[in-house]
Amino acid sequence: DAKTTQPPSMDCAEGRAANLPCNHSTISGNEYVYWYRQIHSQGPQYIIHGLKNNETNEMASLIITEDRKSSTLILPHATLRDTAVYYCIVRPTQNYGGSQGNLIFGKGTKLSVKP
Amino acid sequence: SQTIHQWPATLVQPVGSPLSLECTVEGTSNPNLYWYRQAAGRGLQLLFYSVGIGQISSEVPQNLSASRPQDRQFILSSKKLLLSDSGFYLCAWSDFNYGYTFGSGTRLTVV
Question: Alpha-carbon torsion B67, B68, B74, B75, what sign?
């Protein structure tokens, strides 16, 4: 089962920031927060990941609370092409073998960017 | 750079027919490989993963099997397809530290 909770859907106006929340209250000390998105009929695409510090790359920013029980993915200037299902996933990065590090998807948040 | 190839892109098969989907990875050695399925309107479900040649782990009981005959080749098979096998099948590889890279997927329709 997925270890995260996300709202099922969100709307955002084009050009505005999209803030996607994720709750992961049972996250372990060795688990990172990963974000992926899936545009319709395509494979999921990696966006960003982090452990406890805020992270930023060319696609998005990731804000993780100090207690690590929740995080927010920020798309600073959403475009119509950002319409997708966004998945928040927690997993360790070290190769523990077995199934501990497998990427398990929940239902995600369907983000609709509107003109 | 690493690339992942998955084919075919679409497939229509009759019930009871066999299935073979192939996935290959280039530009990396000893990757972890995965097969996922997404049924219509549903989430992504992990079917199989492999940490090495000949090593296959199944996450859910089903009508499908997987094999890894070579380091960078992962095959999903079925001897007799069911209607419920229809879906979007995705192959992925991981170097574990950076995350997963997914293929472009195969849309399978069983009729």
Answer: negative
Residues 6+ apart with CB under 8 A from A65: A71
On the CB side of B73, how many CA atoms lie within 13 Å of its CA?
A: 9
* Distance separating alpha carbons of residues A9 and A110, to the nearest angstrom: 4
Residue B30: pLDDT band (50, 70, 90) is: confident
Q: How many Å apart are CA B93 and CA B74, to the nearest integer?
A: 10
DSSP letter assigned to residue A81:
G
Nearest-CA neighbor of A112 among A23, A34, A4, A7? A7
Q: Which helix (H) or strand (E) holds B56?
A: strand B55-58
B54–chain A nearest CA distance, Å:
15
At residue B60 the predicted structure's pLDDT band, cuts being 50, 70 and 90, is: confident
Q: Are B32 and B93 in contact (CB under 8 A)?
A: yes
Which pLDDT value is given to residue B97? 60
Contact status of A34 with chain B (Cβ, < 8 Å): yes
B interface toward A at CB cutoff 8 Å?
32, 34, 36, 43-46, 49, 51, 57, 59, 88, 90, 92, 94, 96-105, 107
Rounded to 10 degrees, the C-alpha dihedral A77/A42/B55/B17 comes to 170
